[in-house]
Design brief:
Chain A is an all-alpha fold. Chain A contains eleven helices and no strands. In chain A, helix 3 packs antiparallel against helix 8. The two termini of chain A are 30 Å apart. The mean pLDDT of chain A is 88. In chain B, a hairpin with a 5-residue loop joins strand 1 and strand 2. The two termini of chain B are 41 Å apart. Classes of the chains: A mainly alpha, B mainly alpha.
């Protein structure tokens, strides 16, 4: 490639990164803007929007904020955390077991399982959401945190399965055979030989499942009960009522959290390879 | 040996029981029930009556099926708009991602991992926050109008939010990684020696692109297009926040049927139409491209 076209490509790359990050950077800047009348006009630096989220004293009046009590927001955070922890734990166990079953055994229905596992990932969210809603209501389930956890597991297990399978595919079976030859039982072989080797995949799958669960809006929207609002649902509700500057601060806190989790995951992966 | 085979069988059963139960009861059964619902009579107070009723589909596809009684052309319009906008979103994200993939692929070693990290990171930002960022940019009092007005380009704020443009912008922004990653995966695999050989043999840059680069990166392009199209087509969050009542997509109509209008059978029928479209596209993809690509695309 010539020098000139290389430089054009570099310039394009810069624009591409700008496109990815500028919208997020804008939220960051405005989250510190002290102008309470026009949130887009920069007036000065303040931490008031962050303080008001946590219920600290600010110079803001009632009408300028959404979160009149931090209770509703904290409840949403708590619901999201419970759901994400339960759903990622369960789906990591299920997805890993499935990956082991399909990678280490040959049987007639293998292709059927492989195809079936792709479906929840490519299914439009809204279709899965309403199918689950009709099912849960019809089966007499009370919509709440447990229905959200079940719903999330349906598609998260597939993500974990794909990631752990990729890890298993790149691993040779010699060590497992050696372990068996040396007299270790299947459980010991799994715990001492297989599991340590696939651990980066399992951990990566669990982190991804955690982030996706934490962020899911559409499926949760349909299968959450009135008293099980999660954080994305809470934010969606706020945005539908209109924009107040406080949302910037909430957005940034959430972004920082998901970036830290994601960066940890990506870093762990690059270190272990 | 029989006991060994038996214990292997037992282990396989144990490993696959959880996923079979989960996907059986909470995936296949709900989809089956939804299919049945789409043929039931909507009840008066939001319930259903258990009698066969084909007119849920008739409301959307009535005219072509020869039934005009319940037919309302607004639904065909919305369906076609959803298809068209999803197509535009695919095209735009392809045009944006394709050169970017080549840019990232040119880096080596540590720097490449870092650039890849930078490109992947926004993918993990909360979806609702990424949509919100575009509300902030495109509102009448938003950032774009602010910049344009202070630069003297416009006198009055442009109405961008609540138009198709804003819906497309929002969808492209949130779905970009799904296009970038599969394309990057196939660009990364592209052997530079082949490009070199093509140039050495006297091909023009265009010929090299058309005959060598494009065919070799096509699997990534097609895989990316598919996994961008699917969520763009059925999306309801982006049109709800950036499209308002003016740019309704099929996802918004489904949401209304379930939460406001309480006509579940009709909502189920619309969802079946989305599902049908997606399955047809998937089938074409699997038959034409082969099985490996689906998993690779989904993995991205």
């Amino acid at each position: 490639m010539s020098r000139r076209s290389g430089r054009v490509l570099d310039a394009y790359g810069a624009v591409f990164l700008l496109l990815l990050y500028a919208p997020i950077a804008l939220i960051l800047v405005y989250s510190f803007n002290s102008n309470v009348v026009n949130m887009m006009a920069w007036e000065g630096f303040t931490l008031d929007w962050y303080r008001s989220i946590f219920g600290l004293t600010t110079r803001l009046s009632e009408s300028q904020i959404y979160v009149h009590s931090t209770e509703a927001l904290l409840a949403a955070v708590r619901h999201s955390a419970i759901v994400a922890l339960c759903a990622s734990t369960l789906s990591t166990a299920i997805g890993t077991a499935t990956a082991l079953g399909l990678a280490r055994h040959d049987f007639r229905l293998k292709r059927v399982y492989q195809g079936l596992l792709v479906l929840p990932m490519v299914m439009p969210d809204i279709v899965l959401g309403i199918a689950l809603l009709i099912f849960f209501v019809g089966a007499g389930f009370k919509l709440g945190l447990s229905t959200i956890v079940i719903g999330h597991c349906v598609f998260l297990s597939s993500y974990v399965f794909v990631i752990v399978s990729a890890r298993l595919a790149g691993m040779n079976t010699e060590l497992e055979e050696a372990s068996a030859d040396l007299g270790a039982g299947p459980w010991t072989t799994f715990r001492r030989v297989t599991l340590p080797q696939i651990m980066p995949g399992v951990a990566g799958g669990a982190l991804l499942a955690f982030i996706i669960s934490l962020d899911d809006l559409v499926i949760t929207y349909f299968i959450a009960g009135v008293d099980s609002t999660t954080l994305p649902l809470f934010i969606y509700g706020m945005l539908r009522r209109g924009i107040k500057p406080e949302i910037n601060a909430i957005a940034i806190l959430l972004l920082v959290f998901s970036f830290v989790v994601a960066a940890t995951g990506l870093w762990l992966r690059s270190r272990r390879q | 040996m029989t006991t060994l085979a038996g214990s292997r069988r037992l282990r396989l059963t144990a490993l696959l029981t959880p996923v079979s139960l989960l996907l059986g009861t909470c995936f296949l059964v709900p989809l089956g029930i939804m299919a049945v619902y789409s043929f039931l009579t909507p009840g008066l107070y939001g319930g259903v009556e258990w009698s066969f009723y084909p007119y849920n589909y008739g409301r959307v596809l009535g005219a072509p099926l020869g039934d005009v009684e319940d037919f309302d052309p607004v639904y065909v319009e919305i369906l076609l708009r959803s298809l068209r906008l999803a197509g535009i979103v695919v095209a735009l994200s392809l045009v944006i991602s394709y050169p970017a993939a080549f840019w990232v692929a040119r880096f080596r070693g540590q720097r490449k991992s870092f650039v890849l990290f930078l490109v992947t990171l926004p993918f993990f930002a909360s979806l609702i926050i990424r949509v919100y960022a575009w509300m902030l940019i495109l509102r009448p009092t938003g950032f774009l109008n602010l910049v344009l007005e202070s630069a003297g380009v416009i006198d009055a704020p442009l109405q961008i939010i609540f138009t198709e443009v804003s819906v497309v912008a929002g969808l492209v922004y949130i779905l970009l990684p799904f296009m970038f990653l599969p394309i990057y995966a196939s660009v990364e695999k592209l052997d530079p020696a082949l490009v070199q050989a093509s140039q050495d043999l006297g091909a023009t840059p265009w010929q090299t692109f058309r005959r060598v680069v494009l065919p070799l990166t096509l699997p990534g392009v097609i895989g990316g297009s598919l996994i961008v199209f699917i969520p763009a087509f059925g999306n309801f969050v982006v049109p709800a926040l950036l499209g308002g009542a003016k740019v309704m997509l099929v996802g918004n109509i489904i949401e209304q049927q379930f939460l406001a209008a309480r006509n579940w059978p009709f909502g189920a029928a619309l969802a079946m139409l989305i599902l049908g479209t997606v399955l047809v596209l998937m089938l074409i993809y699997v038959l034409r491209i082969g099985r490996g690509g689906v998993a690779a695309g989904a993995q991205a």
